[in-house]
Here is the input.
Amino acid sequence: MKFEQLIITPDMTIEEAMVCIDKGACKTAFLVEDGILKGALTDGDVRRFLLKGGSIHDNVTLVVNYDPKFLYEDSAEISQEYMIQHLLTALPIVDGEKRLLHIDRLNDTSVHREINENIPVVMMAGGLGTRLKPYTEIIPKPLIPIGPKTIAEHILDRFVSYGLKSFYMVLNYKKSLIKAYFKDIDEYEGLDFVEEPFFMGTAGGIGLLREKCNENFFLVNCDILIEYDYYRIWKEHKDSGNIVTMVSARKKISVPYGTIESDDNGVVTTLVEKPQLIYNVNTGMYLCNSRIFNYLNENEKIDMPDLILRCISAGERVGQVIIEENHWYDMGQPEELENMKQRFHYI
Here is the structure.
C-alpha cells in the first residue's frame, strides 16, 4: 500500500477520488493540501452525495468531511483502539500543525510517504554491547530478540517501510554470527556487510563506506528504534543543507525535591517544588551528508559526538529533528530491553 493511494487533493473530481478510495481498500481517503490534513472522504459520503443528485464529475471539495477524526503524534500508540471505538478503518496521524505524518490502518501497519531516493542506511553493529552483559557474551547485540525478530530486523523493517532498499551493516564483535543469521533472509536483499579492522568507535567505521555513500545516508545504532516519520526527517535534512541532522528526543527529568534559588548573598529568592528539567538528548539516529567524510581520517577511531563537534568547529551546519521521548526506544540497557518487549507486546 502506497501512501499516495490514500491521499486526495482539492483539484480532483469525485470520480478521481473514488479511484483513490478503491485503491486504498479501506473505504476512506484523506484531503491534504500543502501537507496539511484538511478532511476525509468515505465511500458512504460519495453514495449519499450521488443519491442527492450530485455528479461524479463535481469537485471533490463539495463532498469532503472537513471535520475528520485524527490523532496527534504523541497519542499515536492508541490508534488501533481509537479506530475500533469510532468504527474507523483508517486514521491520520498528524503533528502539532496538522501536517500529515502517516496513516494507520485497522489491524495493519502504518502507511507512510516513501522516500523516493535510494538513500543508503548504515547500521553501526560492531560494538561489544557492554551494557547488555551477560546477554552479549553469547549473542551480539544486533541479534538480541524482541519477540519473533531481532532488534536489527525491527530497525531495518522501519526503513524498508519507507521504500529504502540499500543497507550496510558495520561489523566487528561476533561478526560471523551476524552474517550467518542474515544470510538467508530475503527481505533484506540489499544488505551488505563491512568489517572493521579494529574497534573504530561509533563513527570511525563509516569511513569504510566513503565510496558507497555519495550524497546523503541514514546512520543508526543497532540498539535503538525510532517510531517517527522518517520521510519528514529526510525532508528536513535535504531542505536544510545540514552536514548532519541529528534525531533528538525531548527527555523530561523530574527532580523529586523542592529546589532553592538565591542571589549572590545567599538570600533565598524563590522556591520551586519538584521542578521538571527538559533536555534534547541524542537518540543515536542521524542523517548525514557525504561531506562528513572530509572530517574523518582514514582508519580513524572516533565516536559520533566527537565527529559532529569537529564538523561544527569547521563551520558546518548541524541540525536536529526533535521527537517526543515515547517515540524512542533504547535497548542498550537490560531494563530498557524489557520496556521495549513490553511496548511491542512480547511479554
